[in-house]
Amino acid sequence: MEIDATMSPEQPAILSLPVYEDHHQVTSRRIISSGNLGTAPLTFLDASGRASTGPDGRRVFRLSDFICDISSFSEPVFLIATPKTSRACHVTLTHELIEHPGDPGSFSDVEITAFTWTPNGTADPDIAFDWRCRVVSNPIIF
């Protein structure tokens, strides 16, 4: 496998990727050097709630809809959802870190998109689900 190491000025430099998290420690694998593992203490925000998808089987929400926290967020973001229905159904989640408008490169929110699906792969509308998000929370120091 060949890796293209060229980067544009707008592209962030990611020199390690998280591979495991446990007890407020994240283990990362360095991707530029020898691939050694390293750990770093981190603070996590753990939030959960209940929501439901709309008639299109989709729901978009932000953590700021559920919490009042002044933090800066970063990867990794861990998501899980459980549908609250007795019939067969799947829930998938995606996320995007939302950049703070006054501080480029700092992320002040997490946007989560939930999709509900029937077993045959079509959108499953109006499904309630419980969700949980665990994200690195970097306190803002004034």
Descriptive report:
With 142 residues, the chain is mainly beta. β2 and β3 (37-41) form a beta hairpin. The chain has 2 domains: 13-42, no CATH class; 43-139, Immunoglobulin-like (Sandwich). The model is unreliable at 1-5 (pLDDT under 50). The strands form 3 sheets. The protein has a 3-stranded antiparallel sheet, with no helix packed on it. It has a 3-stranded antiparallel sheet with strand order 4-9-6, with no helix packed on it. It is built from no helices and 9 strands. Helices cover 0% and strands 55% of the residues. The N and C termini lie far apart (45 Å).
Number of domains: 2
| DSSP summary, beta strand count | 9
For the record, the CATH architecture of the largest domain stands as: Sandwich
Uncertain spans, ≥5 residues at pLDDT below 50?
A: 1-5
How many DSSP H or I helices? Answer: 0
Structural class: mainly beta
What gyration radius follows from the Cα positions, in whole Å?
18 Å
How do the helices and strands follow one another from N- to C-terminus?
A: EEEEEEEEE
Task: Just give the CATH class of the largest domain.
Answer: Mainly Beta
Would you tell me which CATH topology of the largest domain applies? Immunoglobulin-like
The N- and C-terminal alpha carbons lie at a distance of: 45 Å
Short recap of the structure:
With 142 residues, the chain is mainly beta.
Secondary-structure blueprint:
Blueprint: E1 16-22, E2 25-30, E3 37-41, E4 44-52, E5 58-62, E6 71-83, E7 90-99, E8 107-117, E9 128-139
Antiparallel strand pairs: 1-2, 2-3, 4-9, 5-8, 6-9, 7-8
